[in-house]
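hey so i finally got around to running both of the ones u sent me last week. sorry it took forever, my laptop kept dying halfway thru and i had to restart like 3 times lol. anyway pasting them below in the order u listed, first the sequence line then the structure token line for each. didnt double check formatting much so if smth looks off just lmk and ill redo it

first one:
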Amino acid sequence: MSEEKIRKAQKIIKTFRDTLEEKVKDTSIIVVLLGASGKGLRKRRKIRARLEEEGVIAIIPEDDFPAKEAPSVAEEAIFAEEDVDLVYVDVESWGSATEFAQFHEKKTTAHKLRVLTRREYHPLYGDSQSYLTDLYLSHLAVYGHVYAYSEEGCFLPPEEIILKLSRRYKKLKALGKI
């Protein structure tokens, strides 16, 4: 291949890369972060800060929804909106388990749901025989979005799973694939 052809190819690739970077920068996605309160809420706030650095709009219901509204009613209505792209639920408490079960049953939200669970409760990697693990398996079979996490070993922590998936989703949306 001649040097001229190489330079021409490099210019095409650079133009494509620059265009893609600009599209990704201009594309916005909205994600919702559900999970436990207390320590879980502090963790979600840190994740939100990192997502916002990436240009992702992150909603935490405890911070962003009116306190006077019934959370179960407000969440269902807002999550069903087309503008909401992804709903992450880190199942760490009975409340977040209830949210997962509620949204798994709704066709308007189930496909947006990204479920994070400790490795030991994941239907493929753990050995739990609980009702909740069985529901994870159903969600995994139909929607394919149940992610095992661990703070150590070969599994990513929840924060890294959320960041990695959100970044890719945003790029795919920028390319018009979503």
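and the second one:
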Amino acid sequence: MTSGSRNIQQISSATIILVIAISVAWLSYTRQPAEAFLFPRLISIVFLVLSIWNFARAALGLARVGEGVDTTSAMHITPGLVVMAVYVFWLANFLGFYVASILTFFTLLTLYDTGNRKQFSNWVTRALITVFFMAIIYGLFNYVLKVQLPRGLLI
């Protein structure tokens, strides 16, 4: 990959991240009730500051880490991006945060786990990892952060 194409990838990805950060910050400051969005506001500001810094480094040519994303890597990443897009734009609001998160995490774990899919023990391991991870997320969001989460069909 040439230096010019690598720089274009870095600038374009930094721009996409900056646009997302601006959108998230704007959304977190325009939703009500304000108390329910305190944690998202704090996170969105940190995200925005880091994305501005990332964009500035890419635009100034200071981001010289990595070789860019080749076609093979992009093809490996694409299924996960599709699953996450379905989760963010549809599943979390339809099914509810926890149910959607369990399904999404288990799907991603299955997609990217290199273990044999024909062995029952690997499926049990994936299920246990999913349950353990979601228990931590539940405790973090409900008891530590006390954040309002999307409610859906299955809560």
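quick thing i noticed on the 2nd:
The CA atoms of residues 28 and 41 lie 5 Å apart.
anyway thats it, ttyl
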